[in-house]
Amino acid sequence: MDLTKDNTPDGATAKYTEFLLTTASGKGVFKKHEKGTKGTTVGKKKIAAFTIAAMTPCMKLYSFLGQEIAKTLDEGFHGSVYGDWIAAYSSISFQVR
Fold this sequence. Notes:
The chain is built from 4 helices and no strands. It has one domain (11-95). It is 61% helix and 0% strand. It has helices at 11-25, 41-72, 83-90, 92-95. By secondary structure, it is mainly alpha-helical.
């Protein structure tokens, strides 16, 4: 697979991306009686909290993958096209966030 070419995401990836976008927009976050609170400070905090919760599994997976990939590479990976990605997601500072 050539990751530098345009690729269509599989169904699960597309659904997860749509779920994240929907959550971040506030759709489905509020119950019927809360609909008017979306633009308030409390509403914005609720949207942010739900979005962070929705992203956590993905970020944990990125951290795991970054660590596993970094274990298999020599120090020269930093100059590769994915070097910044691997360095960021395999770092201790990313894991503790």
